[in-house]
Amino acid sequence: MNIKDYPFNPKFSDVEMEAAKKFLSEKASFSETVNFAVIVDGGGTLSHRGSGCHGRIGSYDSRGLHKGSRCLVATENGWARSYHNSKTPVDVAEPFLRWFLYESFASRFILNKDDFEFCRDHGFIFSADMDCSLLINCLIVTRHFFEVPKEAFKLFTELSEVVPGAVAYSLAFNTGLSCGNGYSTTNIYTHRAWPIWPTMASLENFVNGEFTDNLKDDPKKHFRNFSTLYGGATYCTHLKLTSPMYVDSGSFIRELVDGNKEYKQALSEFRKDKVGNKIVNPFLRNTGLQDTQRQSQPWLHSLEETKEVLVPHLATLFNENCSIKSEETQPVKEIILV
Question: Global pTM?
Answer without folding.
Answer: 0.87
